[in-house]
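Hi everyone,

Forwarding the result from last night's run.
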Amino acid sequence: MGDCRRRRALEWSVAGLAAAWAIACSPTFRGRAIQPNPSASPTETLRTSEAIDIVTGDMELNVPRPPPPGVPASVIHFDRYKLHNTAWFTMVSRDRLRFHVQIEHKWKEYADLGTWHAYLEDDQGHRYVPEGLDRATTKLLVTMWDVETRSVERNQFGDIMAINDDGWKRRQPLGSLAVFRGNGDFVFYKRDILPANVRWLRLVVARSGEAFEFTWDFADAGGPEDR
């Protein structure tokens, strides 16, 4: 039993070092939520935290802007597709926290949470590594839109006054965009892992090339300074 525990401690230490190295060498995206500490008033506070959504983008991922309400079509204008990277946690017990994490990306391997390292820290200097990753899935999301070349009516100044419903005369292939969404739960276990006097928790999820910091601020004001 002693050898098994030492081996597990060594595995956790290696995972923690890998995550710290990934953070040091990666651009970091940060998000924060302010809420009560679930342990401070367990009968009055929800055991599920606020969700933190960190929105990123990619220069290769663009979708057409939808037409105004009541307008069947409009001149095409592309907007950056929003990638939603989210996290929230559930206080399973006084000794166990389950962090639900979502990562979106154009590459499947990148969205796969099995390729990421994670650790948890608080304002009291504690740092924890997860017991494991549960219920990890990676799904392909496809968005498609209709592209038509329609004729227009212009005024004497060249402004478009009307768009004719004659796109059927010039058939165009459908436009599409595909991204991958990875989901999974990082589970942390430690005796009294979230006592009532903890002022903030920060979940760090990182891999070579990128890192996310999700911070839940339980204090009335302030919290951890951005580093």
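The CA atoms of residues 26 and 210 lie 5 Å apart.

Cheers,
N.
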